[in-house]
Amino acid sequence: MKKLILTAGILSAFLLAGCGNKDIIGTQYNFAWAQIRLPDGDIVEGDVDAWNVGSDNGRVRVTIDGVDYNTHFSNVCLFSEKPVEDETE
């Protein structure tokens, strides 16, 4: 019985490790707005057409206005809606 539980635990760990950005219970993440830092320091922001996690750990592809940006998650902020700009300045 202990071998069966151990085998099931190890198999589950391998299966969960390959999930990437998918939730095991089927939750989908929808992002409407993104800000991306480019290597030259510029910031690109806009409505998200599509996004996808790459096969490499930490890589993400975000499409804004038909342009694909392939980068690391540390260079991207994804928002569920467009942030409200402060107009009191």
Structure description:
It is built from 1 helix and 5 strands; from the N terminus they run H-E-E-E-E-E. It is α+β, with helices and mostly antiparallel strands and 89 residues long. It has a 5-stranded antiparallel β-sheet with strand order 4-3-2-1-5, with no helix packed on it. A hairpin with a 2-residue loop joins strand 3 and strand 4 (67-72). The longest helix is centred in the N-terminal third of the chain and has 16 residues, at 2-17. It is elongated, with a radius of gyration of 18 Å. 3% of the residues are buried. Residues 18-24 have low confidence and may be disordered.
How do the helices and strands line up, and which of them pair or pack?
Blueprint: H1 2-17, E1 33-37, E2 43-53, E3 59-64, E4 67-72, E5 76-79
Antiparallel strand pairs: 1-2, 1-5, 2-3, 3-4
List its traits:
alpha+beta, single chain, 1 helix, 5-stranded antiparallel beta sheet, 5 strands, 89 residues
User: Structural class given helices, strands, pairing?
Assistant: alpha+beta
The percentage helix is 10-25%
What oligomeric assembly is this protein in? single chain
| Cα-based radius of gyration, to the nearest Å | 18 Å
**Tally of alpha and pi helices:** 1
Distance between the termini: 67 Å
Q: Give the H and E element order.
A: HEEEEE
Shape: elongated
Q: Strands across the major sheet, in which order?
A: 4-3-2-1-5
Low-pLDDT segments: 18-24
Largest sheet: 5 strands, antiparallel
Strand content: 35-45%
Number of strands: 5
Mean pLDDT: 77
